[in-house]
Amino acid sequence: MTTASATLSVGPHSLAAPDAPKRVCDTTGLGVCLAAQRFIKLHAVVGIVFLLLGGIAALLLALTRWQTVHLLPADWFYRVITFHGINMLILWILFFEVAILYFACTTPLNAKLYSRKVAWVGFILMLAGGIMVDWIILVGKADVMMTSYLPLLAHPAFYLGIILVAVGTLVGVYNFFATLYVAKRDRAYEGSMPIVTFGALAAAIIAVVTLLHGAVAMIPTFTYSMGWTAQPDPIWYRMIWWGLGHQSQQVNVCAMVTVWYLLSNVIVGAKPVNETVCRTAFALYILFINLASAHHLLVDPGVGATWKIWNTSYAMYLAVLASMIHGFTVPGGVEIAMRERGYNRGLFGWVVALPWRNPALSGTVLSVIIFGFLGGITGVTLGTQQINIIAHNTLRIPGHFHVTVVGGTTLAFMALAYYVIPLIFQRDFIWRGLARIQPWLFGIGITLLAFGMSFAGSLGVSRRSWDVDAQGVYGPAVHLWLGVLGIGGVLAFIGLLAFVLLCVGTLFFGPKNNGRPMADWGTPPIQAGAQIGSLANSHTATRGTIVLTFVFLACFVVYYFANWKALADVWPVR
Amino acid sequence: MSLRPLTAPWFHAPAGHEKLWIGVALVWCFVMSLMMPYWHFRGKQNSTGEAYTVKPDAFLERTQKFVETNRVGTFKNPIANALAAELPIVEPPPGGDAYLIGRMWQWYPALRLRVGETYRIHLSALDLQHGFSLQPLNMNFQAVPGYDHVLTLTPTSKGEYTIVCNEFCGIGHHAMTGKIFVE
Q1: What is the interface size between A and B, counted as CB pairs within 8 Å?
Q2: Domains: count for chain B
Q3: Does A47 score more than 60 pLDDT?
């Protein structure tokens, strides 16, 4: 491929240019831009440090809400919950996403990163902001939860830190867009960008819209906290803040789905069943997710029923449709690739034959299942305008988003790290046995945690509350589910700790793999007589996937209408 | 390949299983989006967000007047809770207005309602945002300073109900409670 493009006249931002600082990957044969590689490393490592900080906080929280243990005192509980939210939802995810963006705009396009200086500026702003926020929370000047709902007010450094992180991220996103532009201009690649870059592009576009919402909400709040301007209206703040808070989760969804496509390609050679459909689905995210900030205002005063209903369904649920499409095309692509490789027995023979000992494979599969069956179904249901009456601010809400952003996005990012570290850091993993069970520990732990949260929430337990015995309304069933929450949290923390130890240990002690392919985690060998591409024109080879998606739909329908029934049992209200 | 640029034409209409799934998913999305307007007209539980602007001290004044005129007793909290040891019990006239304040850290006053009657409950917060969470029914609404949030509520079951707070409001948040008695 490099010889083909080298014969063309290419610009300076193509890796095919004579003096481009690059190396050729010993495993894939693809060109790697050395500048991009450095910033992928930096962002990934800092992201994993914030993941560890957020994870320690998570363990303390789980051990406090587990009422039998009830570890932290009240002030530290609320402080740690603020710290946990910021480190996990903002710092870990944003740092890792910038790493993914820098990868997606360089190696797949055979392009050089647009600017190292811009990348440094973005990175330093993000890091400075992150440290500022964490510090101000830990000294007890910002016990306001991640959402910091006005009139609750934190120290100005809290808002300033978040603004710095947002601006730094925007600078990184700018570098991504600029790289896409110069790669096209300098003919670094021919044809259309691959689906992985396209998904990253969708994530980046949503990130811009998201971070602008963040600026609109945070800047007046910062000036108010300095005493320069009047207090912004609390409902206005909620609406704009959730333009940041909810859409940033769609950035995560986009990045996660991109990782699904990437890993299923790397591990089993899967490709999208239909590029047009997959790309349209990404476009639907960009167009319609903006409305979803309404999910957090469904039982609020001041916004009417029509507004709530229209925005709840983000224009007839077209963003949900997008997720349901990816939920088909990702496993569908895997099924076709496996059948083409000769694993053709029955409906699910290809599932059995998947390389389950490969942690990136098990992590991806668990991410798809946890995100879809648990996170997606609960999210759409809880975000239904009227059903929100029996869910708002209960533990059902964190029960939902821990299976989307943790069991889905974080687990997918962990799975990705099992390839990022050997390929980008050029070191093979240590403790490969531990790595093989790590996704299971984390996935099962987070699932238990979410079940505990969801059932306790259904029994009326509120989120972000230190104690469930002070109100005198919750019985033994609640204590049971909070125990499940606690055990799940401990298990997930062990999975997280294993991941961090594996990554950090590998960075220091992993055997170098320069000059040879990375150690294989396990890929399905092609069976005798099988031919790649033999099912390229078949539209009915996805027999197993279509059955699985209909099982998914059945679960969805049952859960959805069961919640309408539960709603019908409470007092009439309007 | 997902990682390399596409050079062959890639525009294809969906077909086969994929077309079937997209069609079914689209129908399901329509069903879900139609459920909400349907329930708005035919269902009994809706959040219309009816609200009026009100200054916190004006809302406190209205609530105090409501308590003076309609007070029927005193609720002594059997749970040791310094934040809400005692609350006036107030009974609004059937079909009438009731006022409920969320503040650090109690719901004031306690309400007595009659089963099957409909009330307009005015809900607001004086200091920070609070979360009205009626237990064990598990009905939840937001209380926001500056907004008089009107819930048109019809109790359909008798008993003693506890309002807990489910929006973080400081160190006493977990112990912030109130009462609704239905007779």
Answers
A1: 314
A2: 2
A3: yes
